[in-house]
Amino acid sequence: MKTKYLALLGIFAASLAPLSLAQVPVFKVTPQQSTVKFYVKSSVALAGDFKKWNASLTFTSTDVTSGSLDIEIQAATVDSGSGMKDDKLKSKDFFDVDQNPLITFKSTKIVQTGPTTFDVPGTFTIRGVSKPETLSLTVSGVGTGSGDIKGTMAFDRKEFGMNSGIPFIKIADRVEVNVDIFAKRVSGPPVTMKKF
Known about the structure:
Strand content: over 45%
Number of helices: 2
Protein name: Polyisoprenoid-binding protein YceI
Organism: Tunturiibacter lichenicola
CATH architecture: Beta Barrel
Signal peptide: 1-22
Domain Lipid/polyisoprenoid-binding YceI-like: 26-184
InterPro entries: Lipid/polyisoprenoid-bd_YceI (IPR007372), TTHA0802/YceI-like_sf (IPR036761)
Distance between the termini: 56 Å
C-alpha cells in the first residue's frame, strides 16, 4: 500500500511540475537584432551606441506588471564613430571604464500607461553612481509572441559625476538613451495586459 501511495504521489508531482513552469511567460532577448544608443546635444555631433550588452525580460506571472527588465552594458564598448571621442568617454571624466566597467538599469516595476506603452522605473547605475530613473517604452507585436520594445530614458550627466567637457566641443548636460530591444517568447503562455 505504501509503495502504491508513493507511486501515485510521484505521478501527481510530475504532472504538476510542467504545469507550474508553463504558467510563466519566458522571453529571450536577441542582442543581434537590438541596439542601445545615446545622444547628447553638442556643438559637434555626439551620438553612438554600445557594441556589447545584454538584457533580460522576466515575469513571475502572465500579468505584464509582474515583469522585470534588466540591462547590462559593457561601458568600454562605446562607439561614437570617433576614436578621440570614445577615448574621452571611456576616461575617468565620463564612464571611468577601468573602475566601473558596467552601466546597468534594473527595473523596480512595470506600469502600463496605454495599449502599448509602459513606464519602467528602476535603478540606473553609471560610473558607480546609482539613481532612480524611468524608461518609457512602446511595444510592438503585442499578442504575436515576439516584437520590438523601444524606449527612451534621459538623465543629467552631472548628477552622476560627469562634470567635465570634451576639448573644443560644447556639450549639454542632458543625455538621452534609446533602447530598441527585440524579444521573443520561447515558452509559457502570452503576457496579459490591461485594455484601454
